[in-house]
Amino acid sequence: MEYLFEYGLFLAKALTVVVAIGAVIALIVGASSKPKGKSGSLEVTDLSEQMQNVKDDFLANTLDKKELKALHKEQKAAQKNNEDSATKGKVYVIDFKGSMDAHEVESLREEVSAVLMLADKEKDQVLVRLESGGGVVHGYGLAASQLQRIKAAEIRLTVAIDKVAASGGYMMACVADEIIAAPFAIVGSIGVIAQIPNFNKILKKNDIDYEQITAGQYKRTLTLFGENTDDGRAKFKEEIEQTHTLFKQFVAQNRPNMDLDTVATGEHWFALDAKGKGLVDRINTSDDELISLVKERHAYKLAYKRKKGFADKLAKNLALTIESVGMRLWSQTQRLKP
Length: 338
Hints:
Blueprint: H1 2-32, E1 40-46, H2 47-62, H3 65-81, E2 90-97, H4 105-118, E3 125-132, H5 137-152, E4 156-166, H6 168-173, E5 178-181, E6 186-188, H7 200-205, H8 230-254, H9 260-263, E7 268-270, H10 271-276, E8 282-283, H11 286-293, E9 298-306, H12 310-336
Parallel strand pairs: 2-3, 2-9, 3-4, 4-5, 4-6, 5-8
Antiparallel strand pairs: 1-9, 6-7
Helix pairs in contact: 1-12, 4-5
């Protein structure tokens, strides 16, 4: 038993060495690798073709040979006589699943730029499938500004909410010409929140001094480690109110017919109730909306994928290896217990 314990200890030490070496290699490779101009690429998926393939596969497995032959003949005739197939409009589909820091906006800006270079404002339109519970103001402010670029180019914009578009998510959604939402999607939360823990009492209890030097009366209002003052709290509250006012003004500009006093309370609603308050225009899922759109337009999904460098891939693989080895060691120690 003692031998097995020592062997496990040896493996743990070896793993520590491997981790250290891997970290050094990742740092060296990251520092030496030079940026190669193009950091990513735009992926285009033909959604119309995908949906047609699903339909064809189903029919191929449900119709008998005679019916299938007649269907193929009908489809060929329709393709031959379809003179507007090359000239009919397009719908560009963009997915935005936002996190707290809204870092997805870096891909969104590339996707929007691609749409602006490709779309015909007379025939085409954009469908954004949005999912976000909100996050940092500056991140979602930039994301909303990206959607405003589509509106400024006079290209019709529809935002579809299947699950949630609240706070910063709704800041983005309200830019659209039309907002659709699934019946139980969560919408609204037009408010601002900030939460800051304070450890000053813990520091005092342990006789730890904390010093903070600032220039400017309100350079820092509330702090994590210092003793907060009523003046600092009042100023912080004032800044939160200013942000809320800007948020309300932005919503009012984009949804002028909505009773802002009723909805800008920080509350959220299910889409069925939100529609009556003017937060949503129609109750519909993005799936049904897309099925309807492809009857008149060809649908393409745009997704900008950023390239990961060798150091990023190495770090990810190293993390997976560490996790795998760690789980094995843990399993061994569990089996070694008497």
